[in-house]
Amino acid sequence: MSPVDPVGRSAGTLTDQARGLLRDERVATRSGWLQAVHPIVKLLGIVALIAVTVPFDTPGPPAAMLGLTIGLAVLSRVPLATHALRTGVPMAVSLVIVAPQAVLLPGAPLLGPVTVPGISYAATFTLRVGASVSLLGLLLSTTRFASLLGALRTLRVPQTAVALLAITYRHLLVVFEELSRLVLARRSRRVRSATLRESWLEAGSLLGTFLLGALDRGERVGRAARSRGGTAGRGYPRQRAVGLRDAAFAFVVFATVAAGVLWP
Amino acid sequence: MAVNALTARDLSFGYPDGTAALDGLDLTIEAGERVAILGPNGAGKSTLLSLLAGLREPAGGEVSYFETGKSADDLRDRIAHCPQAPVDYLFNATVREDLEYGPAQLGIDRREAEERVDALAAEFALEGLLDKPPFRLSGGEQRRAALAAALSVEPDLLLLDEPVADVDAGHRETVLDALDRRTEAGMTLVVSTPDADLVPQVAHRVVVLDRAGSIVRDGPVRDVLTDGDLLRDVGVSPPQLVEAFQRAELDNPPLTVTDAVERLRDLDDC
Hints:
The structure holds 2 protein chains of 2 kinds.
Chain A: H1 6-23, H2 39-53, H3 60-75, H4 80-98, H5 101-104, E1 109-111, E2 114-115, H6 116-142, H7 145-154, H8 159-188, H9 196-227, H10 244-262
Antiparallel strand pairs in A: 1-2
Helix pairs in contact in A: 1-8, 2-6, 2-10, 3-6, 4-6, 8-9
Chain B: E1 4-14, E2 20-30, E3 34-38, H1 45-52, E4 60-65, E5 79-82, H2 86-89, H3 95-105, H4 110-123, H5 139-151, E6 157-161, H6 169-184, E7 188-193, H7 199-202, E8 205-209, E9 215-220, H8 221-225, H9 228-234, H10 240-247, H11 257-269
Parallel strand pairs in B: 3-7, 3-8, 5-6, 6-7
Antiparallel strand pairs in B: 1-2, 1-4, 8-9
């Protein structure tokens, strides 16, 4: 890939990141604190922590929750840079969306048109998003996808919803694998640096080929799943007994929820 | 009288761009038969196999299975199809989950499924690969894993697209032996391939497709594969042993290396 090939670079980066996020289960199979927690206990605990974070209208509790998630990430040997990136991007997007409230909400002025209630609202909103995304990120990175689906089934989540999740996950994998192949083929056949204009013109063709290829590949994978008995994504759960780590995690969740409920 | 494993009547299929792939094709395969679909690239072999597996809707005609009147979707525990690209077939997080996928969808008891997975892993030399993501395997490993996954439902009818493409010589024997064992136990095997040399190793009957997707010959392997002119006309190279014996103007050409050795010894004795 040439240094002036923004299309190839962007597509390649997007593909690598997405495939890494979807397929790399190395963190989930590491020996870590959250990895040792039973998927059902972990799923319920994370949902409880998100539920207790969302109602707050001051920035302190969501900030504390964000801090707790960083601690959990360290204990679970989740790569902090990757986790920070996955959490930081949605936080930044939320901040951009909510930033006007910093000047639109009436109240005591803080700096120029920025008001104290306005900045508090923007910070609370952004931190709530950050804490929730960080909790979800921890759940997804420390739990194998098949175990997560098994936990949802055990918790009697409607079969249609679980099947939709399984199909969406599989289709995303297929889509990004197709993009990866396309980027690699394009790179292997490039004999000179493309100009920005050439790259821009190629982008349309790349996108069209990618969409057609992804559709075709998706159909082939769908046929393969159908030939093997269906697309429901049922699997054999890897069940194990609830142990000390589960009790410890449940205690952390209980203490946090209790603190959230009793917060003045 | 043997039951027909598969009966296709007046089967037609066209691609969305209007290209006709198959037109009015009739094919009957008896239970326990080993049939090869032989044809050049673009003849519609893979399309035919997916139609026979009930994975595409034909433009016309119908396929029936085991004389039951049931659709292929109702018989997924008896019919398996392994496509040309194994990477499309292996879509789970690990090879083990891929081998378990079919039994899980069909509601087979977990313990039984695990026994099947362990047996298949040993048979196809996949023991060290079970916990790896399928996309990290080599082409030949993916092929073996896909075949093992197809066999995990213990089908009565296996439709196999290019079964040993990408497989190295050592594992090629593994795959062919596994197919032999299944067909000796009664499984019906339909294999598609452009490679005439493979046909005698997997089939007793061969159906030849031309580039238009029509059946131009259907008969015992020896009769069809020794007809070099027919094969060349449709764009398929005759088996190398047949070609060699015919060029040397020797009659009764052998189809397998074992047969060839015997013939050469006979010639030497003469």
